[in-house]
User: What shape does this take?
Amino acid sequence: MERVKVGLVGLGTVGRGFYELMSRNGSHFASKMGTSVEIARIAEIDTAAAQALVPRELLVDDYRSIVEQQDIKVVIELVGGTDVAYEIIQSAIEAGKHVITANKALLALRGAELFKLAREKQVYLKFEAAVGGGIPIIKIVRESLVGNRIDKILGILNGTSNYILTRMSEQQLPFAEALQQAQDAGFAEADPTLDVGGGDASHKISLLAAFAFGGWVDYRNILCEGITTVTPGEIEFAASAGFAIKLIASAILIDGKPSVTVFPALIPARHPLALVRDEVNAVFVECDYLGPALFLGRGAGANATASSVASDLGDLVQSLVLHDRRGGYPFDPSRALELYPEKEMEYRYFFHFITANRPGIWAAVTGCLADNGINIESVHQKWEDPSEPSDLYVLVDEAREEQARKALREVSAESGISEQSRFYRILPL
Amino acid sequence: MERVKVGLVGLGTVGRGFYELMSRNGSHFASKMGTSVEIARIAEIDTAAAQALVPRELLVDDYRSIVEQQDIKVVIELVGGTDVAYEIIQSAIEAGKHVITANKALLALRGAELFKLAREKQVYLKFEAAVGGGIPIIKIVRESLVGNRIDKILGILNGTSNYILTRMSEQQLPFAEALQQAQDAGFAEADPTLDVGGGDASHKISLLAAFAFGGWVDYRNILCEGITTVTPGEIEFAASAGFAIKLIASAILIDGKPSVTVFPALIPARHPLALVRDEVNAVFVECDYLGPALFLGRGAGANATASSVASDLGDLVQSLVLHDRRGGYPFDPSRALELYPEKEMEYRYFFHFITANRPGIWAAVTGCLADNGINIESVHQKWEDPSEPSDLYVLVDEAREEQARKALREVSAESGISEQSRFYRILPL
Assistant: This one.
């Protein structure tokens, strides 16, 4: 049986998960692939802690000795971050090795450059674990959907945010308390900004959009809003109108251009995406031939991530056995995709105006909306204590993003209306 | 750009769908694959009808001219049935061509032989469209889960049955009326036996189990029951106890042996599988590393099936470009898997006894169950007209299949109890 030597960089949670997977299921993997894999070297800065986990003779404290080892054909980067991780991947590719990474932040930031380099060096840069955790969405988009025009991808791609929104919705908790629960349950970092601010989801949807639509999408150019403003009152009102609020990362083809966005969206409560609870991830795809399809699974965690790394490794073993050095991808990383203009997007909107309790407020709000050509569908006012600001919830008909923003600015400038007033978008499904 | 010549056999619904897909998305496919595909010849017996659909010069009325054409590298069999389809696939493989088929009935019946032949001839026999329609479950099981031990596969694999059960449940229709609706809506054949009797699902789960567990599973050896006995009353009672009734095809590893079954099962109403409506297919998978995952999509129809055929074609184009002639599969078609013994399976059961209305019936039922060591969880009797037989619904604790069958036989032999009495199994999820 052929034998492929692999170097593992990083023995944190995911690195340990992958090492354990290969220890436990390695022979099984070999019998399925017809080729066995040997983890020939492991680089970890914290060698003291690592010695308890893996054989001492495999350990090095510098990734460079892996990159320099001739017979290692695949480097698995699981250190995270965007500095050293970049050096590891870049130098491994330069050395002609295939690379596997779970690092969405790095790929979103410098993927265009790294994928281009990989193609030049005729190696593959694989990243199934970077998007959707254990859900094999990259393979599905790249291989299973090859006969389709992909019209729409809607994802629940950030487990932390979905966990928080689920707790807020099911237990009527305010954001801060639900965040605390997520932290206690191990589903949120001490600094949750990247998760709850939408950044993590924007990395993932940009990568997914790139491979779905064949060019590069810079996550810094997409509309990205997080869930920190969402309140239990908003969730309750949305539910009464038949919607759930979910942090949805989407990539939708409009007039041939991808509209790529991340925001807390209202989606129909009966849609399968609305039923995705807690830390689970999900990707809904709509294509011209496949039709609608939905994929659900664990979006993070050492084991699910390790499963995706192993899937990439299976593909690379195959590439090595077949001497496949095309390093090709069904997309051109040097070509930046022209996105559908943000201000032209059209949605139905859910406005939440925070207002004083006094005559004239309704007139000001409805007047401003009318002036901006926005048609009101329904209005609900929650009014508990007249001395406190009250919540005015307004669902409106389809409008252009530009109109909605202008209306919000104008209403918020009125006397007695808080600048904290905001809107959410309703996603058609 | 390299060019691969393909022969298409059969221009029925699926054949036309695939031809249309390649006409519409062929250049897209080529740019993704870096290789273009030419449908070089199409065989269809009904050439008169076919002439209206495809260029006349491509048409032949005998598949043999495709098999004999040297430069055709891939044969796509979309005629269905198990006679001519077998000849087409067998002769194409013998001629050294890769084959794509959507024919689950044929593969379930003679797959062991055909996969063995394909390996000998160093070609691939691909069948993504045969299981789960557009859901890429074969690729997921074979490639994405390569690092996992697959513990459990539960599928809603027959769209017709799921459509009927959904109508029965949502509109309180008897089976015959729901079947009629399915036929009117185009979701059931004039002769629905293969669908509603569980046969179609048994073909699919046997194939899935073979590739998940690495050996052959003969669908004729598995426990297979259809949905024809299910009544709206049973569905209603199940719902009141927190269950939905779905035709579930399952392959579950018990003590290292696969238990492969098809039957109408009670599953928890809150489980995502319970929410799969109408003709949609779904596959729930549980693995040691991936954890639980769920894949949903269209299980049939020309377009979804064409999408899966195109996915297989993408893989074969890659194999051809890389001169991959291993024809290997991560399973040994000559090795019949030893199934977990049917009578040893353990479930909770839902008994439905159809009884006369008179004293002593409850005593007979509960006595028989007790004699067989079966513990009653709850009992519900529906009693509308005392002169009519009444429905006695009994949920019982976990028991072995052997016990449950013996108890049913004994109760049904009692005076005043109908031989139509039956049970359903509750699947743990």
Observations:
- DSSP finds 14 helices and 18 strands in chain A.
- The CA atoms of residues 238 and 257 of chain A lie 30 Å apart.
